[in-house]
Amino acid sequence: MAQVHPQNTERSISWFKRFQYDKERDSPNDGRNVLLVIATLIAAVTFQAGVNPPGGLWQDDNVQEHHAAGRAIYASQKHPYYVFLMSNTLAFSASLLVITSLT
């Protein structure tokens, strides 16, 4: 097992502390702006995933395989699609709540 030198541990901790909120260095307005940018990016990505689902859409009707044009290809796998749908909806709703509460 490799031994960790105290100097390397201190260096990694000081690197991490640089990104933590500091009352003397950062204003609350900066923290709010960072949260707004992150929440907006999450909202944009989850909205795009909802509009254009993973795997794409069926292009033509296939009655034998029960595929309707415009339906998500991923929707043919019920359980994974519902997990995706619920997690995407939760992330989108949470990011909208954060955006609304910060503005």
From TrEMBL:
Lineage, highest ranks first: Eukaryota, Viridiplantae, Streptophyta, Embryophyta, Tracheophyta
Name of the molecule in the record: PGG domain-containing protein
Subcellular location: Membrane
Tree of life domain: Eukaryota
Domain PGG: 29-102
InterPro entries: PGG_dom
Keywords on record: ANK repeat, Membrane, Repeat, Transmembrane, Transmembrane helix
Membrane topology according to the record: Multi-pass membrane protein
GO cellular component: plasma membrane
A Pfam match: PGG
Residues annotated as transmembrane: 33-51, 81-102
